[in-house]
């Protein structure tokens, strides 16, 4: 029995919550995963997992064994990287999750830069507007916008995303273009709400270095970023979004910016990963590349000065 391999199987079962999911994640036959756990438990002389037809949970011994496995595997990966070609050319599977708009519009178009530099890294990229559970879903690194972050994760700030307030040309023709917050009376907004928490978001403006939240009447509320902008283009009211997400619509005239004098607060974009993956060479080079990407001139992470 390869004990380190068995440890990897065990930790992935814990993280994903099932034998089948772990097998799929590791690209192993499901029977092989079961055999490795039985062999590991026999070697240790303890039961690590409590299995039922519907649920898998850690025993007391398993709960004590899991964090030690995580540390050992992280140390092993880092040690091998120091004394092998992987130090300069890391390899293996890297699971990343990010908001769909950031992935579709910013990261994936630039991804050939990364894969050319690190051709041995295989990427699994999830595009979600919902926050994922990194441990349970077996994700190595996530990108998240906003300031509400998980203190249990390692956070690497990437960039502050400029945001803009927009409306459709049809809406502006019907309601006029507000030039100040005092002129918002009689206007309406498209409301965004979280699909996971149900929290609803009003419009935010920077006034004298303070964030002022304004709620307007609405006819439509949505829980996805693309649906939010689609409702705006359909004329249902004002929205606020990162510049990158509306840059094309603004350029093509499908949306127009309003209230330029009182912009929304910038949105922080952060890379997050579990502490036990802090030493992973794959995670490190990917996050370093994201920092480079965010700082490159000519991308849409920042609003172009000429568009002001």
From TrEMBL:
Q: Give the signal peptide range.
A: none
HTH lysR-type domain segment(s): 1-59
Q: Which domain of life is it from?
A: Bacteria
Molecular function (Gene Ontology), one example = DNA-binding transcription factor activity
Q: Does the keyword Cell inner membrane apply?
A: no
InterPro entries, per the entry: LysR-type_TF_proteobact-type (IPR058163), LysR_HTH_N (IPR000847), LysR_subst-bd (IPR005119), WH-like_DNA-bd_sf (IPR036388), WH_DNA-bd_sf (IPR036390)
Report the CDD domains cross-referenced here.
PBP2_CrgA_like_3
> What is the designated name of this protein?
LysR family transcriptional regulator
Family according to the record: Belongs to the LysR transcriptional regulatory family.
What does the record list as GO biological process? Answer: DNA-templated transcription
PROSITE patterns assigned: HTH_LYSR
List keywords of the entry alphabetically: DNA-binding, Transcription, Transcription regulation
């Amino acid at each position: 029995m390869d004990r380190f391999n068995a440890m990897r199987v065990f930790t992935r079962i814990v993280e994903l919550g099932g034998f089948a999911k772990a097998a799929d994640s590791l690209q192993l036959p499901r029977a092989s995963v079961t055999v490795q756990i039985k062999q590991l438990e026999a070697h240790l002389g303890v039961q690590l997992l409590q299995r039922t037809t519907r649920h898998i949970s850690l025993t007391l011994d398993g709960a004590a064994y899991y964090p030690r496995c995580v540390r050992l595997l992280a140390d092993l990966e880092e040690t091998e990287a120091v004394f092998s070609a992987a130090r300069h050319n890391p390899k293996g599977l890297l699971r990343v999750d990010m908001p769909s708009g950031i992935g579709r519009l910013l990261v994936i178009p630039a991804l050939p830069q990364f894969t050319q530099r690190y051709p041995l890294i295989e990427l699994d990229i999830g595009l979600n507007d919902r926050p994922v559970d990194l441990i349970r879903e077996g994700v190595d690194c996530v990108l998240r916008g906003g300031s509400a972050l998980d203190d249990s994760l390692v956070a690497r700030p990437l960039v502050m995303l400029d945001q803009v307030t927009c409306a459709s040309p049809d809406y502006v023709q019907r309601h006029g273009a507000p030039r100040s917050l005092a002129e918002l009376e009689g206007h309406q907004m498209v409301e965004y709400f979280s699909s996971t928490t149900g929290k609803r978001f009003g419009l935010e403006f920077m006034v004298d270095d303070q964030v002022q939240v304004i709620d307007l009447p609405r006819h439509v509320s949505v829980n996805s970023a693309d649906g939010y902008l689609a409702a705006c283009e359909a004329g249902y009211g004002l929205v606020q979004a990162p510049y990158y997400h509306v840059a094309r619509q603004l350029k093509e005239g499908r949306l127009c910016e309003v209230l330029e004098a009182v912009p929304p607060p910038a949105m922080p974009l952060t890379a997050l990963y579990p502490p036990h993956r802090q030493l992973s060479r794959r995670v490190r080079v990917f996050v370093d590349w994201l920092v480079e990407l965010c700082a490159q001139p000519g991308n849409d992470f920042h609003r172009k000065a000429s568009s002001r």
